[in-house]
């Protein structure tokens, strides 16, 4: 095969076609749910920051230094974990702030980013399991009881609190994600499916 035949074969190959372009009307349709997601991401950041400020002031109101110290270490540890997840969160925020989505492939890539961040979100809630356990241990140890708790009562209280706390975390996380992001991601998915047709 000579060079001219190779060039003709290369030019005839349709596999390198550009991805379908998205019209201005379609971009406008997709920008509404994206703007809602961006707005909710900003809200969530501020809610988290305010929660940490309140938590630090609550720790200062504790009576014993030992309790203050344990709770401070717990809150600082949580701040590191939350910082890691928010770094991933901000990466997505920057990605969806980029309004240069002009092809179907860029929309598919954005949806992939949403799916990945949904997994981060689930991991975020699961990462609170050790913090919940530590918090329950601190509460059981430092709350005064009229009679000392037996080891069995302490174990039942700890396990029950963790099971109830985990269930509440799971349900709250699922509700929170759907309310703040899930319904908008579903809108974007349906728009991508519509563009594909």
What does this entry look like structurally?
Keywords: Membrane, Transmembrane, Transmembrane helix. With 197 residues, this protein is mainly alpha-helical. The protein has six helices and no strands. The protein has helices at residues 3-12, 24-60, 65-97, 104-126, 129-142, 151-196. The protein has one domain (30-196).
Output the structural class.
mainly alpha
Total discrete domains: 1
Helix content: over 70%
Shape: elongated
**Strand share of the residues?**
under 5%
Distance between the termini: 39 Å
Order of helices and strands: HHHHHH
- How many whole angstroms does the radius of gyration measure? 25 Å
Mean pLDDT: 79
Oligomer classification: single chain
Task: Write a compact overview of the structure shown.
The chain has 197 residues and is an all-alpha fold. The chain has helices at 3-12, 24-60, 65-97, 104-126, 129-142, 151-196.
